[in-house]
Amino acid sequence: xxxxxxxxPTRIVxxxxxxxxxxxxxxxxxxxxxxxxxxxGSVVRTGTLDRVKASLDAAGVxxxxxxxxxxxxxxxxxxxxxxxxRAEAVDVLLPVGGGSTMDAAKAIALGAVxxxxxxxxxxxxxxxxxxxxxVAVPTIPASGSEASDSAVISNDAxxxxxxxxxxxxxxxxxxxxxxxxxxxxxxQTAAGVTDMIAHIxxxxxxxxxxxxxxxNIACGIIRAVMDEAPRVFxxxxxxDARANIMWAGTLxxxxxxxxxxxxxxxxxxxxxxxxxxxxxxxxxxxxxxGAGLAVIFPAWMRYVWQExxxxxxxFAQGVFDIEPIDDSEEAVRDAVTATIDELQxxxxxxxxxxxxxxxxxxxxxxxxxxxxxxxNRGEVFGSFKRLTLEDARAIYRSAL
Length: 400
Fold this sequence. Notes:
alpha/beta
């Protein structure tokens, strides 16, 4: 087991109708003026936003709003939020929505106390030094942003999508109400399930030797998610199934599933698949992140598995109870192939795409994605297997 530091300071308030405690929790934490950040209107249509505002009003917490944050949030909305945060002297960011809303709020929180342009922080031209605290109210279990150190935003003018990892991104509090996800469309539910599984696999396939306790945590979370997802599709208002999926999304990305299999001196995972997918959704911002991962991850797995077949066999047994019939090279290959097929078939069974062609992506688009990948990841990247831009081209092509 590798040495590691695990830091997860987010206080979690989890349960049915927890959203109605938002104002009470903010007031108890000493916050008095919130900037509510939300997306395209679902929190308005479902009454979620009104419940949050009523809770704030009852607790005496003043509030202003920034709505209209899109999926794959664009830096222009972040800049607008920074202006509001400064002008209104808010002391807390309150995103209500999915990962994009939470990531936008994190970027606003960092940018509001930075003298330059917030894109400097995401393009790595400057390092964040402070932030306004963030309290997250997730309505889509997927990104795990409610307890993670990451935020990702897009810059349409530069055709880039960049992430920033810092403990300053970790929300101080998350209000998690599984009942809010009852009305989540099936496609978003499926993309969320895919995203959280991908967060765990990025850490599992770090390239480092296994750690039995962490491996069992990782595989156990994935198995639980795969068990609960069909129950949600059968009955969208199944509270227990929704609750288990929501909690899994948090545990998948707060760092727990990477303890001991982390890269010494580096991140707790490989993160190549997220890098490849970020260029995909930078190419077309309408592509849902989890849906892109459903295509990219199996393609990457087929390309790299021979680098560390033992990790794939551990994953095969821990998640799917698949084992090779003997120690021969052919048997190992068959077991790994069956495992990747099972994983991809599961994603497809939820309604996720199998190929990039289903997004309308063509081979001519690969050069544009590689240009962004070079800026964000460099000429050589990855820890499970060191890859070049030509390797990335081959993975993209295999997924068409």
